Amino acid sequence: QVKPLSQLHWKSHWKASKRCLIEWPEGPGDLASKPLPKHPGIRRGVLPNGMRYVILRNAMPPKRFEAHIELHVGSIDEEPNEQGIAHMMEHVCFLGSRKRERLIGTGSRSNALTDFQHTIYHIHAPVKLEDGRGMYLPALEALHEIAFAPEMVPHRIEKERKAVLAEMQQVNDMEYRIETWTLSGLHETNKLGSQFPIGKEEQIKAWQQEDLRNFHKKWYYPGNATLYVVGDLEEEEMIAGIKKVFEPAPARHLPSPDTAIMEPVWGEESADARSLFRRKIARTRPEQLHNFSLPMIGTSTSFTKAAAFSTDEGGLPWHGPLRIFRNELLEGLQLNFYAKTPVRPLRTLEDIRHLIAVRILVGVLQFRIVSRYSSNHAPVQIDHSDSFREGCAVTSITVNADPRDWRNALACVVQEIRAICDYGITESEMKRYMDAMLKDVQKGVQENDTVPSEDHLNFVMTSDVFDHVVMHPEQSFAAFKEVAPSVTMEQVHTTAKWMLGFLGYYGLAAAPPATAIVVCTPTQVYEEHSGQWSPFNISEQEIVELLLTVPDKSKEEALSQVDVPESLLAGEKLEKLLGKDPIDAMAAWRASSRKVDEATGIVQLMLPNGARVNYACTPNDSQGTMRMLVPGGRSSDEPDELGASMVGIRTISESGAVANFSREQIELFAVSNLMSVHLDLNLEFSYVDASFTNTSSGLTSVLELLHLLFQEPRWEVPAFVRAQQAYKAQAYAVQKSLEQSTMDRLMCMMYSDPRVAEAKVDNLNKLTLAKVRKAVTGQLRPQDLEINLVADFEGKGQNKMAGVEGGLSTGKHHQEDGDPEVEFELPAAAKERRLRELEEALWKYLGSLPTATSEQVNLERPPVINKGEDLAPEDRQRTAHLEDSDERAVANIGGGAPNRWGKGDSYHKEVMQGKKFSWDSPNNELKDHPLYPSMCLLAMREVINTRLFSTVRDSLGLSYDCSFELSMFDRLEAGWYSCTVSAHPSRIMEAVDAAKGVLQGVKRRPISELELSTARRTLMRRHETDLQSNEYWISLLTHLQYDNRKDISCVRDIEKMLQALTWRDVQNAYQTLLTEPDQLFVSVSTAGPGSSFVSGGAAPAAVSTSTPSKQLLQVD
C-alpha cells in the first residue's frame, strides 16, 4: 500500500519544526479527525487504459464548456540532451492537429502550455453551434489527436522549431531573467532551478522527428494523463463522450492490478520528506529533492549543514544561499527572501484551522509594514502559498527599494517581522482580519453560480496536485465558520515563528534557515544633482550585517493600536450638508430625475449638483464595482505643466489620507469594510475605481470615503515628492526597457505632442505641488462627474446566502416563545426598497457635494498625428540598440486611425476627404447606428490579427507573437493603430516587412465572408462571456451620459450590430487606417552586446554607452 507522500512530507516537517523556536499550542482534539466534505458535483473516474478523468457540471457561461487534458510531464522529466523538448512537443502536437484547426471559426478558443511538471492542452467551446451541431465530441476528438495521435510531419516540426526559437527571444526580457535567477537560487537542489521549460537553443536546433517521436512514446500515453471537463453539459453526456473518444487510445505502461489509480497517489514509494511529490505512474521517475527551510529535516538527532556554524563566517550560522545578480538595465533594487516548506494538504478541519492562522498573519503583517511607509504604495509583498508549478509551498518576502535607501527599506521589514514573531498580534487585529476573511469566504458562496467553468477547472486541477479535498463553496464556508472560533491569537503567534522565523530570527542557530536569498541590483544609479550615472554596489556581507543588527521593537511599540473609525461622515457634518427636509427633497429629486431602460435594466440619474449616474443590477459578483470619471486625463496638461495630471492623481493616492483621518485609519477602515479605492488616469479621463460589499453598509462606507476624497483631499508636500520621484524612476526605467522604449520612440515619431509619449524627467522636475493640485482640481469637479455602478443591488446573492445559512444551520427548527415574528417582504417590494436605498445613498453622499468653483481644464486640444508625407524617411523610421547580455529584438509599426465613433484628428479628416471616404454603407439599415464604426473597427482588428498570425508567425516563422491594436478613444477625436512584432535581431527587419505586407495587403486582398464570420463569432462569444463580469458592464455604462454619440442602444444592440455586419462594411472601415508607405511609422530596437544608440548616433540619456568589453551580467 502506498501512503500519500504529501502526508509524509507534512508530518516530517511538523515534527522537525518543533525543534526550532516553536512550541505549537494544542488545538481542539477532534478537528484533526474530522475530514473535509468532498464537492458533491465532482465526478472522478479512470478508463481501462489508465487515463483519469474529472468532470463537473457548471452553467457559467451558459451553453459552453472547458476541456483540458493534462499530461503529467514537463521540463524536469527531460534528459540532459532533451532540454526544451517537452515545450517543442507541445507546439508540434497542438499546432499540427487538423481536428483542432477545424474548430477555428466555431467560436471556440484553444491553447497550450508547458511547465516544469505539466503539459496542458485546453479548449473552450460552445456546446452547440447555431445550426445545431454539437461541439463536445469534436473538441474531445481534437484533444485526443493532440495528445495521443499527432502527425509530427517534418514541415510542422520545422515551423515550430522556428516558433520556439522566436519565443525564446521574446520571453527573455528582464522580468523573465529575474524569474529564472530567482528559481535557480530557490531550487538549487533539483531541476526546477536549472531546467526551464523554454530549453536550450543549441539542442532545439538539433532535434529530428525521431527524437520527438521517442519523447512522445515515453510520456504521452493514457496512464500519464488526466482529462478535466467542466461546463454546461449533463454528467451522462460528459462521461459517455470521454469513453467514446478516449477508451480506444492504446494503453502503455499499465500499472499492476493492486495499484490504486482511481484516487490520486503521489510520488515514488519513498519516505524522503524532501521529495517533490508527484502523481504516481507506472514508469519510474527520478525524485526531485527540495531544500526545505528546516534545520533538521529528515533526522531527529542533529542539525544539518544549513544551521551549522561556519568558522569561515566568524562563527555565525550560515543560513541558505545568498545570490546577487547584477545587470545595468535594472532600475530598482529587489531583495527576495524565500523559505520552502512541504504543502500541507487540506483534508481535515485542523488543516483549515492552520490555513486561517496563515491568512490572518499575512494580512496583519502586510498592513503593519505598509503603515511604516509614508507612502500608500509600500513596495513590499508578503506571501505564503502552494506553488502548482514547483510542487511545494513557498513563503516569500519581496522588498523593492531605491538602491540608495535599501538599508532603511530592509530594516523596516525585518523589524516588523521580528516583532510579530516576538509578540504576535493584538486582539483587535485578530478580530478585524478574521471578520474580513470570513466575509471573503462568504463571497465564494455568493459568486459560485457566476464563476466561469475555466476557473472551476483550474481550481480543481491545482488542488489535485496537492491532494487537497475540493469542496463546494457552501461546504467551505461551513468549515471555516465551524473552525474560526478555535483559532487563537496564540496560534497565530506560533504560526508567525514557524512561517517567518527564517527572517525574523535570522542568525540564531535553531531558527529555520532561509531556502534562498536572491538580490537583483543595478550596476549604476543616476545622480540627479550631477546629471551623471555613478557605479552602485551591494555585497553579501553588507546584507548579512544589516540582518543581524536590526534593533528590536519594544512590546509596546509592536502592539500599538490605530483607532479605526466606524464611520467617516456622520452626525452634524452630514446633516449640515443635506439641509432641511432631506427626505422630501430626495423624493422629489428621484421622481423627476430617474430614467429606466426596460430592455437592459439600466437606470440613469442626474444628481442635484449635475453629476450623472448610470447603474445596472447583476448578480455576477459578490462585490459591487464603481467607476467615477471626469474628462481630462493627460491630454489636459498645459504645455508648461506636462505630467501635472498624473503626478497630481498619484499625489492624492500617495497621501492616502482625507479630512482629519490618517492613511492608517483609512487603510483599516477599508479592510474592515472589505472595500478598495484606486485613482488613476489615461489620455482622456481621470477616474476613481472602487469595489464594495453588496450590503447597505458596504456601499455607505465607500460613498463616505469618496465624498471626503472629493471634498477634503489631503495635498501634502511629502506625498507630492514621492509621486514625482515615482514617475521619474518610471521615466528612467522606460529607457532601459526594450519594449517600452521602442513604443515610446514610435509615439514620439508619430506625434510632436509630448502629451502622448512617456513623461520626461525634465518636465517632471518643473512641477510643483501648486501646479499638480491645479491640474487635478480642474478635473475632479462634482458637476463633471459620471458615476457608473454595477452590483447585485436587487439582493439575489444575499437571498441565496440566507438560504445557505438556513441549509447549513444546526440551530432551531421552530420558533421559540418570545422570538419576534419576522415580517415577510415580497420580492418586488424588496427590490424596490433596495433600489430606493441605493439612490438615496448616492443622493446623500455624492449629490451633496457642492459644485466646484475651480475652472475646468482645457478639453479642446486633441493630439494630431504628424503628416508622414512631409517627413524624411529617416524621421518615419528609427532604429535603436540597447546594450545587454542577451540578444533580442522588437518592432512597433503605427499610423493614424479614427476613434471609437469613426472620427479622427484634423490630419486624418484631411486624408479621408481626399479618399472621399464615408461611413455611409449602401444597403445597410444600421449604418446610422452609433455603434456602427466601432463594430466595423473591432471586426477588422480580429481579421488583421488572424492574418498576422497565419503569415508572420505560422507561414514564415519570423515571430512567435505579432499583434495589432487600435487606440479606440471615446472623447478625443484622434487615434492610432499599432502593430507589435518580436523576432531574433537577425530577422527583425524581415518580420517588419512581413507585418507591413499584412497591414497594406488588406487593400489588395479584401476581407472575405469567412474571415468576417470567424471574427464575428469570436466577438460574439467574448461579449457573451464578458457579460458575466462587472468590469465589462462598467465599460458598457461608461460615457452613456457623456457628450458623444453613445446611448443605451450601444449596450442593447451589440449582438444585433455584429450579426448585421457584411464584409463590405469591414473592408470600408479599413480605409480609415493610414497605411500608405509615407504614412507608416516604424520603431525597431535590438538588444545585445555593443554600445547603445538610437539611429543617428544619439544615445538615450538613461542608458549606458560604456565600452562593450565589460561584463554585462554578474552573478555572485
Topology:
Blueprint: H1 5-17, E1 43-46, E2 52-57, E3 64-71, H2 85-95, H3 98-101, E4 109-114, E5 119-126, H4 136-148, H5 154-171, H6 174-186, H7 201-204, H8 209-219, E6 225-231, H9 235-246, E7 322-327, E8 333-341, H10 349-372, E9 380-387, E10 392-401, H11 406-423, H12 427-447, H13 453-465, H14 473-483, H15 489-504, E11 516-521, E12 524-527, E13 532-535, H16 540-549, H17 555-558, H18 572-578, H19 582-593, E14 595-596, E15 603-606, E16 612-617, E17 623-631, H20 644-655, H21 663-672, E18 676-681, E19 685-693, H22 696-711, H23 717-736, H24 738-750, H25 761-765, H26 769-777, E20 786-791, H27 796-808, H28 827-845, H29 873-876, E21 877-883, E22 888-896, H30 906-915, H31 932-955, E23 962-966, E24 976-983, H32 988-1004, H33 1009-1026, H34 1030-1037, H35 1049-1052, H36 1054-1060, H37 1063-1070, E25 1081-1088, E26 1093-1094, E27 1113-1115
Parallel strand pairs: 2-6, 7-11, 16-20, 21-25
Antiparallel strand pairs: 1-2, 3-5, 3-6, 4-5, 7-27, 8-10, 8-11, 9-10, 12-13, 14-15, 15-16, 17-19, 17-20, 18-19, 21-26, 22-24, 22-25, 23-24
Helix pairs in contact: 2-5, 4-9, 10-11, 10-12, 10-14, 10-15, 11-15, 12-14, 12-27, 20-23, 20-26, 22-28, 31-32, 31-33, 31-37, 33-36
